[in-house]
Every structure is written in C-alpha cells, then in structure tokens.
Automatic annotation (TrEMBL), chain B:
Segments passing through the bilayer: none
Gene3D superfamilies according to UniProt: P-loop containing nucleotide triphosphate hydrolases
The entry's keywords: ATP-binding, Nucleotide-binding
Pfam families to which the protein is assigned, alphabetical: ABC_tran
ATP-binding in keyword set: yes
Protein's name according to its UniProt entry: ABC transporter ATP-binding protein
Superkingdom of origin: Bacteria
Domain ABC transporter: 3-230
MF (Gene Ontology): ATP binding; ATP hydrolysis activity
Keyword Metal-binding listed: no
Length: 252, 300
C-alpha cells in the first residue's frame, strides 16, 4: 500500500482553486507570502487587498501567467507549475482595463474570442445567437463595441469570458465607474453564473463589491490576513461594513 | 467666491454631454458631483476651469466669468484632473517646483497649505513621479493643484482606483483644506463618498437628478425599503422580480433592497410568497435608504 501524496489528500473534488503556501518572490521582496486557501465550485469568492498588497501577483499565478517561487496550487484541476497552458485554456478572464476590441463589432468580438478558445464554427454561431438574445443586443449586434455604453460593454465582456463554459472565471475589478443600476444587473449575471455552477473569483478594492461575495479574503503585505463570509468578518471585527473591516485590518 | 452654473449645455456632435445644468456652490463649501462614467462630470470641470467652452449658459468661478475672465480664473483655481497628468520623468520635488514657478510662487511661500500632505511624500522627493504608487501620485497631484493657494479647488474623481485606506486619508485631507477657506468641487462615482460632502448633485447622462445635502436626499426617498435575504440569492432576486407588487428589486451586498407598490404592504404576505418559491431562511426587515437607493429611484 502506498501513502497518498499530499495533494491527493487535500484536493477536494469540489474545490476549483486549491492553493497551499503559494509564494512569489522578486529578488529579496516577497510579493506573495505563503498564501493558503481554497475556492469551492459555484462560489463567489472576493479577493481583496490594498494597492500593493500582492493581489495582482497572486492572481497572475492563479491564471497561469506567472510561475510561483514555491508552494502548490491547482486551478480548475490543473497545476500552476506544470500545466499553465491548460489553465489559460480552461478559465475565463475579464478585466475592466481590457475586455473587448472597440473596433470590432459585437458579433466579431464574440467570433474572435470563441475562436481563441477553440470553439467550432457551428458552436460559435450557436453561442453568438444565444448570447446576443440573452443580453438583448439584437439591434447593436453589427455595431462597433466602442460605440456601446460602458455598462453594455461590461455585460458583453462577462458573457464573452464565459463563452467556452469555463469552471471558473476571474474578474479583475469588474464594475468600477458604472451606474448603480447597471452595476446591479451585472451582479445579477454573476449570481446566475454562480447558480449554474461557475466559480467566480473577483478581485476588487471596492468594499461594497465585497459585500456581494459568498466569502472574501483580505491580503495585507503579501499574506491573507482574513478569510470568511462578509457577515462573519463584520461580526469578528465588530463593524457594520466591509469597508470598516478593511480599514481595521490594513491599519492594524 | 463660490461657483455659479446657469443653464450650461455642451454637446460633442450628437452626444449631449451636459443638458441645461444649473447649480451653485457656496463659498467654502465642499460640494460633490456624484455620478457614473459618462455622466458629464469631466466636461463640466473642463468648462469651469476654462479649458472648454459651453454651447449655452453662463458660469462663474470665484465671481469671475468663465469666458470673459478666463485668464484671471486660471490664477485662482486648482485643478486635479481624473487622469494623472504630472510629468512622469520629473521627480516629486521637480514637479512641485515646476507648478510653483508657473504660478509665480515658490514651495516655501505656500508650504503651510500643503505641509500636511507633502510631509507624507517628502521622504521620496527625489523619486520620479512615474515610479510612485497610486496613493502617492494622488497626493503629489493634490500638492501641485494647491501650490499657488487657489480659492477654488476642482478635483475630478480623485479617489478612482485608490484603496479604502488611501481614500479615507484623502477625504480627511479635503476636510482640512476646507477649514483653510478653500471652496471645493469634487466628483466621484462612489456613492458612499457622497455622505462626506456638504451638498451633492446627483448627475447622470448630462442631467442633474437632484441637488441637496446628502441627509435631505436620503430623507426624501419616497418608499419604505426592506432588506430581504434568503438561502439562495439568485432564486431570491428572480422570485422578487416576479412578484406582481414589486416596485424595485436591487441586490445590495448580502441583502436585496425591496420596495412595494402598495401603501399597506404587509411583509408577511411577501414572506409567504417566497416560501412558496421554496426559499429558506427568509428574513425581511425595514432598512434606511442610502444615497445609492435615492440615485437609482431618481434614475429609474
């Protein structure tokens, strides 16, 4: 009889992310310091931290574009050290900074991203129809994305990030600057995706966005200093909002 | 010494960026323009700082006309644009000296005004602006906007992209500047910052939705809001939206903010309806309106 290897013991089938002691160093500087956490299937997980806390570096490791210095992590069943390419193919990603091509039409963007993720022509056609109907974009389907209001772009780019039906989608500060009604429509889309079993990983430093998550982690100086449901974190710190939780943690 | 805006309109081709905007900012007031991207906030700032000419309407800043007295206005206003627009390849100290020189003054002459803020970045004064963190850039930009001791300060989304700790510090700085007699017009897409202003204008699609103190705006919210929660957020939102008597249903963090169309709304009735939808752990409690609720009701 052989003993199970550590990851076989720890890798729960329901975990879409499993990170242990994940670390990234740049020279002498430890940007991410041995973070350990897991994210479950269908969970909306908030990944918070101040500017410079190590959030972006940690996320880069999880999406397969930066190799960790040490530790272990699996994302969507793939190892961040040895299967980075598989991770890239099997996750969705959306950032506010870059999402869609402004000088392609709505349909062209969908076709382009469908192609990138290896969908067949037939599948792309089906998906395009479905997605445009879902978002009510029939009338602007042949317009350049650059001409659409910010809120529409965001909803479209979220749908495009899900086009290959990934197990997990990473949202990098998704809703900054949009009006409060559109923002809520966006969160309703997130709830729907989560309900259908897609895991949502959101990085943000807007604490009101954190209130929407099932669980949130807060990074301070490269370490995860808190991880729980927003409700329990507020109780733990004896405050009314996630903003106050954050201020207490970051200021010590 | 404040700001007056009367019937200002501005269009870019077919896009109506500002439509007949009017409001006053009192001397020494901290006034907030609250609205999403594309509301017209930056256009208004550019008109008031004499960088853009309105199609219609009049405006004064510190009792000076934005058209006739544009040169004079520029001596008396400080402007911190939304995009970081200092010289990336000059150091902190060089940027500040540069702006002081342009306005015919020196860092020493007005040091008192910027001291609180400058001491926080002074240890890095030989670092190039391009190499600074977001919070430090923001502090430097504020120092540069203040170095000629302006009467009126314009801050266009100063806290966008800044973490909560830096945001809080920034608002504390603004309060201290206000105490020194400066009139401040600040814009933000974050509704929670509205409460920190003396008065606010809610703005969307080039139109002002309402102007008042944050308390008054919230107090004028026309309905009773209920916090509703249950075991499944997605089903809860869908069920509430399908409820025939719903007036508004908005996710709000761990709750949904619900309002009903009827005068004599009985929460128990809603609870029974939600139970039939197979929801569990249902809670319905009255809650206070926020600026965001008011904004959404007005924009509806």
């Amino acid at each position: 009889m052989r003993f199970p290897l550590p990851w076989e013991v720890n890798m729960n089938k329901n975990n879409v992310i499993q990170a242990e002691g994940l670390t990234k160093m740049f020279g002498d500087f430890t940007a991410v310091n041995a973070i350990t956490f897991e994210v479950k299937k269908g969970e909306i997980f908030g990944f918070l931290g101040a500017n410079g806390a190590g959030k972006t570096t940690a996320m880069k490791m999880l999406i397969g574009i930066s190799t960790p210095t040490s530790g272990t992590a699996k994302v969507a069943g793939f190892d961040v050290f040895t299967q980075a390419e598989d991770i890239k193919r099997n996750i969705g990603y959306m950032s506010q900074k870059f999402a869609l091509y402004d000088d392609l039409t709505v349909k062209e963007n969908i076709t382009f991203f469908g192609g990138i993720y290896g969908l067949s022509r037939v599948r792309i056609k089906e998906k395009t129809k479905e997605l445009i109907a879902d978002l009510g974009l029939e009338e602007v389907a042949n317009q350049l994305v650059g001409s659409l209001p910010l809120g529409w772009k965001q909803k479209l780019s979220f749908s495009v990030a899900l086009i290959h039906e990934p197990k997990i989608v990473f949202l990098d500060e998704p809703t900054g600057g949009v009006d409060p009604i559109t923002r809520r429509q966006f969160w309703e889309m997130i709830y729907r995706a989560s309900h259908q079993g897609t895991t949502i990983f959101v990085t943000t430093h807007y604490m009101d966005e954190a209130e929407y998550c099932d669980r949130v982690s807060i990074m301070v100086n490269g370490k995860i200093e808190a991880l729980n449901t927003p409700k329990k974190l507020k109780e733990q710190f004896g405050v009314q909002s996630m903003n106050d939780v954050f201020l207490k943690l970051a200021r010590g | 010494m404040g700001i007056t805006v009367s019937n200002i309109s501005k269009s870019y081709k077919d896009v109506k960026a500002l439509q007949n905007i009017s409001f006053d900012v009192k001397p020494n007031e901290l006034f907030g323009l609250i609205g999403p991207d594309g509301a017209g906030k930056t256009t208004l700032f550019r008109i008031l700082t004499t960088l853009l000419i309105a199609n219609e309407g009049q405006a004064t800043v510190a009792d000076l006309d934005v058209l006739k007295d544009f040169k004079e206005i520029r001596k008396h206003v400080g402007y911190m644009p939304g995009r970081f627009s200092l010289y990336q390849d000059l150091t902190i100290e060089e940027n500040l000296t540069f702006f002081a020189t342009i306005f015919g003054t020196t860092i020493e002459e007005n040091y008192e005004l910027i001291k609180d803020i400058y001491v926080q970045i002074e240890p890095f004064k030989d670092r190039r602006a391009g190499k600074l963190s977001g919070g430090m850039k923001q502090k430097l930009a504020l120092c540069c906007a203040l170095i000629h001791k302006p009467k009126v300060l314009f801050l266009d989304e100063p806290t966008t992209g800044v973490d909560p700790v830096s945001r809080k510090e920034f608002w504390e700085m603004l309060k201290r500047l206000q105490q020194k007699g400066i009139t401040i017009l600040v814009s933000t897409p974050y509704m929670d910052e509205a409460a920190l202003c003396d008065r606010i204008a809610l703005i969307q699609d080039g139109k002002i939705l309402q102007i008042d103190t944050p308390e008054a705006i919230v107090n004028q919210y026309p309905k009773t809001i209920y916090n509703v929660s249950a075991n499944n957020m997605y089903l809860l939102i869908n069920s509430l939206k399908a409820y025939p008597h719903q007036h508004s249903v908005y996710p709000f963090g761990e709750f949904v903010h619900y309002t009903d169309t009827r005068e004599g709304f009985n929460p128990e009735e809603l609870e029974q309806y939600l139970e039939v939808q197979n929801l569990l752990n249902i809670r319905i409690e009255k809650t206070e309106a926020t600026i965001e609720d008011s904004f959404m009701e007005l924009a509806k």
